[in-house]
Design a protein that fits this description.
By secondary structure, the chain is α/β, with parallel strands linked by helices. It has a single domain, classed as Ribokinase (UDP-N-acetylmuramoyl-L-alanine:D-glutamate ligase, 3-Layer(aba) Sandwich). The chain is 31% helix and 20% strand. It is built from nine helices and 14 strands. Strand 12 and strand 13 form a beta hairpin. Helix 5 (198-205) packs across helix 6 (210-219), helix 7 (258-271) runs antiparallel to helix 8 (276-290) and helix 8 (276-290) packs across helix 9 (303-312). The longest helix has 15 residues, at 276-290. The termini are far apart.
């Protein structure tokens, strides 16, 4: 199977509990409505989102030889995501990365996360031969893969470009990471696109406004620099200038995966030849569908439906 977009990085199994509005006291128990099991992790969500939009997509990731790992593989296959780039951890003590996600009535989730074998995902686990063919290679969840920090990541970015692909980057929150500099050392100039969330951008660049963040990335070599602004939409800067795009007005059920859905829509737009600003609008529209359903990719429809939505939907 040939793919147009290859996603590289973390994969997680999410146990999503709804609705969790209180914390139990130590030694006690509280009930919540239901729990669902979903795939998580930025590149995994983006890959599934792209597949749901109708884009041929592959995923390079690492899982363990356990139940959650089998669930990841089966889910990806079922949705048509190419998993030839998957590797299985050799150490039996390693586990597939896992999150327990608590969704309150407001929809703004809390997460407990364990790195699992994402913490040992290394350049040797990435079959760079798969970079030849895709038009885009997207590296995501970058702050959660310590063996892909700095020069190791730069080598993969250069390999993707050498193979003829354009490169995209995104990260994730890592509460234990005090210094974000080493994550991207030597990497900026090798990103065609870099599009983190607002909080992630602040941790990387300091407390700057979106326009200043985009300028910070561009000054270091990123060609298309953006910031996902949650319910406010997004901001980006290209050679044509800076723009902020408002989010669409929808009822929010669950914000889980909204940023990854944005990346799926954005990359789909770029793949279809849209200007980056129009691709970002498509990203906002894809994210708007995501937040209307429980789970990171459940609400994402085919690309044609997203485009129809954009013609009549109102922005904030």
């Amino acid at each position: 199977m040939s793919v147009d977009v290859l996603c590289v990085g973390i994969v997680v199994v999410d146990a999503v509990g709804a609705y969790v509005d209180e914390w139990p006291r130590e030694g006690s128990m509280l009930l919540f409505d239901r729990v669902e099991q979903h795939i998580g992790g930025c590149p995994a969500n983006t890959a599934l989102g792209l597949a749901r939009l109708g884009i041929r997509t592959g995923l390079v990731a690492k899982v363990a030889d356990d139940g959650p790992g089998a669930f990841v593989k089966e889910t990806m296959r079922r949705h048509g995501v190419d998993i030839r780039g998957f590797v299985t951890a050799k150490d039996p003590r390693e586990s597939t990365s896992f999150s327990f996600i608590m969704v309150p009535s407001s929809g703004d989730r809390r997460i407990y996360h364990t790195l699992g074998c994402n913490g040992t995902f290394a350049p040797a686990d990435v079959a760079t031969r798969l970079f030849k063919g895709p038009k885009w290679v997207a590296f995501e969840g970058l702050s959660l893969m310590p063996r892909l920090f700095g020069r190791n990541l730069a080598k993969l970015l250069k390999a993707a470009r050498k193979a003829g692909a354009r490169t995209a980057g995104d990260t994730a929150l890592n509460s234990k990471l005090a210094d974000w500099g080493p994550v991207f050392e030597g990497c900026w100039e090798h990103f065609d696109v870099f599009f983190p969330s607002e909080e992630e951008a602040h941790r990387i660049t300091g407390p700057r406004k979106p326009r200043e963040v985009c300028r910070w990335f561009r000054e270091r070599g990123v060609k298309i620099a953006g910031v996902k602004l949650g319910a406010k939409g997004c901001a980006l800067e290209t050679d044509d200038g800076y723009v902020e795009l408002p989010a669409y007005k929808v009822k929010c059920v669950d914000t889980l995966g909204a940023g990854d859905a944005f990346m799926a829509g954005f990359l789909a737009g770029m793949l279809k030849g849209l200007h980056p600003v129009e691709a970002a609008r498509l990203g906002n529209a894809t994210s708007a569908h995501c937040v209307q359903a429980l789970g990171a990719t459940t609400g994402i429809p085919r690309l044609e439906k997203v485009r129809r939505f954009m013609k009549s939907a109102r922005t904030r």
